[in-house]
Design a protein that fits this description.
The complex is a heterodimer. Chain A is mainly α. Chain A is 77% helix and 0% strand. Chain A has one domain (3-261). Chain A has 12 helices and no strands. In chain A, helix 1 (3-34) packs parallel to helix 8 (115-148) and helix 9 runs antiparallel to helix 10. Chain B has helices at residues 42-49, 74-77, 93-101, 111-117, 133-143, 163-178, 190-196, 214-221, 246-258, 271-279, and strands at residues 2-9, 19-26, 31-35, 57-62, 65-66, 78-81, 151-155, 182-187, 199-204, 207-212, 225-232, 235-242, 261-267. In chain B, strands 6-7-8-3-9-10 form a 6-stranded mixed β-sheet, with helices on both faces. A 4-stranded antiparallel β-sheet of chain B has the order 2-1-4-5, with helices on one face. A 3-stranded antiparallel β-sheet of chain B has the order 12-11-13, with helices on one face. In chain B, helix 6 links the parallel strand 7 and strand 8. The chains are: A mainly alpha, B alpha/beta. Bound molecules: adenosine-5'-triphosphate (ATP) and magnesium ion (MG).
Chain lengths: 266, 284
């Protein structure tokens, strides 16, 4: 880790982090403020008017009857994946491939900062930004719900759900980062590093539209965010989360190793 | 300071070499000019020497460090400016230098002082994204001297700059040379090379054809000519005579004996002419 480089990363990318956090927060706020234990049933009745496939794809098919279930289904089927995913994809490309492309990496590597240190710093920044987005938004969510509906949010299961969600995103981020390290031009880095995570996202959506398409869920890391299962059994979520953590470490690690070995176009 | 033996480099990892069997040595305090046309392999050589490109074959040592096993400390001793300048657009000129400064673990130069040297002090707090190409180039250039490098790699430091700035850059290089900095200077500008370099190496198609001092090259390859202006019948006549040619030498004697010489100077071949003579190719 190199602090100087980390701070420059922050200076260059804080806008993206802030933007994603704010958009995410709009949904966090509405999810809690819209929650009305009495009207859930009415809401569900209203939803019967919509095509079932569409509701499923958006994660609104079962809203759950308590605050946990309601917020979880409202946010973690779609919102909590797509917006952080945008951050993950854009920044993965920026942190390595774009620097190589523009030539600034060459200058960075002719200083006493080693390649491993550069790559590790960029990886740490990548994950830190993601965690920061969740910290901000989950923090607001927890504070708001404890103010409006004290004692309603079951923290253990809710945090377990967040852990799994963040870890699926670090797997996607690890893929983006790996390609950012492998490719010498940022077009290729984007093609694969963004293409694969976006494909994950699409496969998850598709698998939920219709039982016939359910098989697609095996093609997506995001299908591991099984909301009801994790809420019912936080320990299960923890287990899944740790496995994903391991996969993420491998992906980021591979990126660092590849970056350390390669010839840099100048 | 720099020792290169049998260096080969192929981007495609086959027998298509961008640099082929290059060997040379640069001693402390020397300014070594690496000259050749576009695509000759100059930047590739610098890339290997600075550890950006993997050393595939050959031995290279820079500042006493074997490039095969790069050590962080080596980078405290070298300064590098590549062909393409690069600065962080989101940072100001001053922040760019301060950022870079913090990456070294040796005493560094004062950022403001460096900006003054190239006349960028008045825009020190302006974001580099708003700079012109020449300004970015100057910023990149001074950034490469921030760690007081013992060895300074400069790839095309004057190319594409307006003459005034180019000459300013030349003066800075001269001053650093006087301080004892070793310089590896890549260029295809023969005048720059002639003015700055103790020795030059001609590289073409990845091969170094010849290494010598500009002076020796001129003595060896330049046809030694003398230009004489002398008075004759109330006017001035100019004649160009070769030292090598027997009849020319006799003619020169005759003119000298008339005592009517107004001006006489030797004309030497330019490095460019010598380059063409040696390699059979021009520099553009
Ligand atoms: N990244 C790269 N990938 C593949 N081939 C390359 C790459 N960079 C350079 N080459 C090739 O290697 C050879 C040498 O290129 P190099 O950049 O070293 O030349 P140069 O002498 O610096 O030329 P110039 O004066 O134009 O800067 C050229 O044939 C070039 O096409
Ligand atoms: Mg070049």
């Amino acid at each position: 880790m190199n602090k100087t480089l980390f701070l420059v990363d922050l200076k260059a990318n804080w806008r993206v982090i802030l933007f994603v956090s704010l958009v995410f927060m709009i949904y966090v706020l509405t999810s809690v403020l819209m929650y009305d234990p009495d009207s859930i049933e009415k809401l569900e009745q209203m939803f019967t008017l919509f095509p079932e496939g569409m509701l499923k794809a958006l994660g609104f098919d079962t809203l759950g009857t308590d605050l946990n279930g309601y917020v979880a289904h409202y946010l973690y089927g779609f919102i909590a994946i797509i917006f952080p995913l945008i951050y993950i994809i854009v920044i993965a490309n920026k942190l390595i491939a774009k620097h190589v492309d523009s030539g600034s990496m060459a200058y960075l590597l002719t200083t006493p900062v080693t390649r491993v240190k550069v790559a590790v710093t960029q990886a740490v920044f990548h994950v830190s930004g993601l965690i920061l987005i969740f910290l901000i938004d989950i923090g607001v969510l927890v504070l708001l719900s404890s103010a409006v509906f004290p004692g309603s949010l079951k923290l253990a299961s809710f945090l377990s759900l967040n852990f799994v969600t963040i870890m699926t995103l670090t797997v996607a981020g690890g893929i983006g980062f790996l390609f950012s390290c492998m490719c010498n031009d940022s077009r290729n880095s984007l093609a694969f590093g963004a293409g694969i995570p976006v494909a994950f996202f699409v496969f998850k959506m598709v698998s939920e539209i219709d039982a016939k398409l359910e098989g697609f869920k095996y093609l997506s890391v995001f299908s591991l965010i099984e909301i009801d299962k994790i809420l019912a059994d936080p320990a299960y979520g923890l287990g899944v989360g740790f496995i994903l953590l391991g996969v993420s470490v491998l992906l980021y690690g591979a990126g660092v190793i590849i970056f350390n070995k390669k010839s840099l176009a100048i | 300071m720099i020792k290169v033996e049998g260096l080969y480099h192929s981007y495609s990892h086959d027998d298509k070499y961008a640099v082929r069997d290059a060997s040379f040595e640069i001693t402390r305090g020397e300014v070594f000019g690496f000259l050749g046309p576009s695509g000759a392999g100059k930047s590739t050589t610098q890339g290997v020497l600075t550890g950006l490109l993997q050393l595939q074959k050959g031995n290279v040592s820079v500042a006493g460090y074997d490039v095969k096993k790069p050590v962080r400390k080596m980078f405290n001793k070298i300064g590098v400016s590549f062909e393409q300048s690069n600065v962080y657009g989101k940072l100001t000129a001053l922040e760019n230098l301060e950022f870079y400064r913090k990456l070294f673990d040796v005493p560094t130069r004062d950022a403001m002082e460096l900006l003054e040297i190239v006349g960028l002090d008045h825009v020190a707090n302006q974001r580099a994204a708003e700079f012109s190409k020449g300004m970015k180039h100057r910023l990149t250039f001074i950034r490469s001297m921030i760690n007081n490098p013992e060895i300074w790699f400069l790839d095309e430091p004057t190319t594409g700059l307006d003459p005034a700035i180019a000459s300013e850059i030349k003066d800075i290089i001269k001053r650093e040379k006087e301080k004892g900095t070793t310089v590896f200077l890549t260029t295809h500008n023969m005048f720059v090379a002639d003015e700055l370099c103790d020795r030059v190496g001609f590289i073409i198609d990845g091969e170094i054809k010849l290494i010598d001092s500009p002076r020796n090259l001129k003595l060896q390859y330049g046809e030694k000519l003398v230009e004489v202006d002398y008075r004759k019948n109330g006017g001035t006549v100019r004649e160009k005579l070769s030292f090598i040619d027997e009849s020319d030498r006799r003619r020169l004697n005759e003119i000298v004996n008339t005592g009517a010489i107004e001006m006489m100077h030797t004309k030497e071949a330019t490095l460019e002419e010598i380059f063409i003579k040696v390699t059979g190719r021009g520099l553009e």
